[in-house]
Every structure is written in C-alpha cells, then in structure tokens.
Inverse folding.
C-alpha cells in the first residue's frame, strides 16, 4: 500500500568520506517521498557546511533520475562539524546558524547520511532541537546498532580484486606483497578482503601484532616451499607495543575533564600517528628479518571510488525508502539500521560515539585461523 505522508520539507545531507551507495539512498528517499505524498526534498551541499551556508538544491525527479549507479554523492560532502567549523583559519561553533537555517528552510526533518563522525554531529543537532534521522554509510563498517553499513560491500570487492591481482605478481616474483586496506581504526575491510583473497597474514587493529611473529609465519611458508606471501594490513593495524601505550592513555582519559583531557587527547593522536599506518616502515623491517624481497601496495581512495555494488545499491535503497516510514510516523532522533532483511530504528544516543570493532573471536577470525592465516599474534 502507498505510504501516506503529510506535506512538508525533508532536508538531506551527506557528510564525511564519500561512499558508494549514497546516491542510491538519496534517490530512495526522494522518489519515495515524491510518489507517496507532497513532501518536498531539499539537498544541502557539502555536508553540514552547506546547511550552514544555506547552499541547497531541490531534489526533484529530474535530479534523482539516473543516479542509482553513480559513485560518490551528487550533493558533495565535507568533514566539517557544526560545532568546529573551519572559518578563516579558526574553528568556530556554528551550531546556532545551522539550527536557524534548518528552521528558515521549514524543514520537518534533516536526514544525515554519514559514518561515526556524522552520527555524533547529527546527535548534537538533535539535542539542539532539530528532527534528525541518520543512515549508516561508511566503507569501514564501524557503526554499532546495524548489521552492516552501505559502502562496505563495494570497498570489499575492490580490495579483493586487488589482492587477486597482487597474488599472481607476488607468486611470479617470489615476493612478499603487503597490501594496505582502509578501515580507519577497525579491521572489517582488511579481514574480509584478506579472507576472501586468501591472504597469508592479516593484520587488524583489534589483534595487535609483533613483527617477529609475522616474520615467523612467512618464513614457515618458505620452509614449506611457498616462496611468496600476501599480507593484508588494515591502515589502523598496530603493534603490541603501540597498543599497550594507547590503551594506557585511553585508561587515563576515563573520567578526566578539561585541560588535562585535551592534553591526553593530543597524546593519543600523537601515538596514533606514530604507531598506526606505518606500513612502509613495517615492510622494510619485514624485508630485513626475512631476507625476502618485499613490496607495498596502498589501495587508498580507490576503495571508495566508482560505481556501487548491487548489494550496496539495494541496501542503500532499502534504508532510504524505509526512512520515509519513520518520517511519516514522526519518529526522529534515530538511525535507520539494517536488521537482517528488515530495517529498524535505533536511538541516536545508543550509537553516537561508539565504534563497532571486530571481536577478536569473531567467526571470520576463527575461520581464517583454521586455515593457518597468521594474525601476527
Ligand atoms: O571513513 C572512511 C575512510 O575512507 C577511512 O577508511 C579512511 O581512514 C578515511 O576515510 C580517509 O579519509 P580522507 O578521505 O579524508 O583522507
């Protein structure tokens, strides 16, 4: 039965790193709203910055046509936060201006599509009195409360394709090839791609590694006549030493406020830069220990670009069209999440600021370990 929704205005913005499937989600909201009621859909450009600067576009049928298969976002995106907006070399709290523009545009709801950062910012706006709905998008799959995020499947496919290609060259040259895979501070992408691509070692942030254990696993392969190896490493992967230092500062952070907290946060980001994303240095060390020729491929933004997979198009379409149900029911302050074949509403306060880490005993990890894949631990 057609959904009956009242007249009014839906605002949409996309924020954070772009993700394949964003346009499918925009189209899902826009077309469902247009065909089932008299709601107008307005898109704000470049994330929260566009709402602050009141840069918008009417998302009519013309705008929504032909975008299902497009990667990126037709609205543009940015990582700008309402409460820390870069303005002339400083960061300024522009929350009031954003709330004012929300009302000036007569919005009944603002749909924010984004990852962890967007969720926190959207929650703040909902606390400031705006009606907010979010959709979980990120290639990292690091949002709690949803089975999966859209964008993950496409990025996974790209990373697996890369590993398949690296396999033949690694084997021909008898080399170790280390492939760095995105994922911010979680290992879903590296784990999934490493498993599907048959990587010999997988390094993820949730399972700290030592270079010696990693080297042992590669030399053990050599002893079995395997003269090449593929190592899938998450960009956030960390050594046991780095992890210990970071956890110690994180512990101090609990319950610390004010200046001391700011200092500890600075310490944390310094440790993150020192110990995470050091794939090149790790490769050099590995080459010295194993004596095997080693190469590095950093997949980087390739994993976010291009056309979304069929799974992501359908996931984003389901989430976008379902959002209209919650708008019709005036259920706000929620994220529309994936729950098996259904969508469900999860309160923003339950998900904002939380991270969906890979449980170290997750079935994907167990399956990989059963195949003697090394985690460097
Ligand atoms: O969150 C998505 C993501 O692609 C992460 O995997 C990565 O750490 C980050 O964004 C890269 O951000 P940017 O595109 O701003 O360099």
């Amino acid at each position: 039965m057609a959904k009956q929704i009242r007249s009014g205005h839906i605002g949409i913005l996309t924020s954070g790193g772009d993700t394949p499937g964003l346009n499918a989600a925009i189209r899902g909201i826009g077309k469902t709203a247009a065909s089932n009621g008299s709601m107008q859909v307005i898109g704000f450009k470049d994330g929260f910055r566009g709402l602050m600067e009141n840069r918008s576009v009417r998302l009519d049928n013309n705008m929504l046509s032909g975008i299902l298969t497009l990667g990126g976002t037709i609205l543009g995106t940015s990582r700008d936060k309402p409460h820390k907006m870069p303005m002339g070399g400083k960061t300024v709290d522009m929350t009031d201006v954003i709330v004012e523009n929300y009302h000036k545009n007569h919005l009944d709801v603002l749909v924010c599509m984004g990852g962890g950062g967007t969720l926190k910012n959207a929650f703040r706006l909902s606390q400031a009195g705006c009606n907010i709905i979010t959709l979980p998008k990120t290639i990292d799959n690091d949002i709690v409360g949803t089975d999966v995020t859209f964008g993950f499947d496409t990025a996974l496919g790209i990373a697996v394709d890369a590993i398949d290609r690296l396999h033949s060259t690694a084997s021909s040259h008898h080399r170790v090839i280390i492939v760095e895979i995105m994922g911010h501070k979680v290992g879903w992408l590296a784990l999934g791609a490493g498993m599907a691509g048959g990587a010999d070692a997988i390094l993820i942030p949730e399972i700290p590694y030592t270079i010696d254990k990693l080297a042992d696993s590669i030399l053990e392969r050599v002893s079995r006549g395997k003269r090449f190896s593929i190592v899938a490493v998450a960009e956030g992967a960390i050594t046991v030493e780095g992890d210990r230092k970071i956890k110690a500062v994180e512990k101090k952070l609990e319950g610390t406020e004010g200046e001391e907290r700011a200092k500890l946060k600075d310490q944390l980001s310094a440790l993150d830069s020192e110990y995470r994303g050091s794939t090149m240095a790790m490769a050099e060390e590995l080459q010295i220990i194993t004596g095997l020729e080693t190469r590095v491929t950093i997949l980087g933004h390739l994993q976010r670009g291009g056309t979304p997979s069929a799974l992501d198009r359908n996931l984003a379409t389901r989430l976008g069209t379902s959002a209209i149900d919650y708008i019709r029911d005036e259920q706000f302050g929620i994220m529309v999440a994936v729950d098996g074949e259904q969508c469900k509403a999860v309160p923003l306060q339950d998900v904002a600021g939380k991270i969906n880490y890979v449980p170290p005993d997750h079935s994907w990890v167990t399956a990989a370990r059963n195949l003697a894949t090394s985690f460097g631990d």
About this structure: The two ends are 54 Å apart (CA to CA). The longest helix spans residues 152-173. The chain has two domains: 5-150+308-340, 154-238+276-304+359-370.
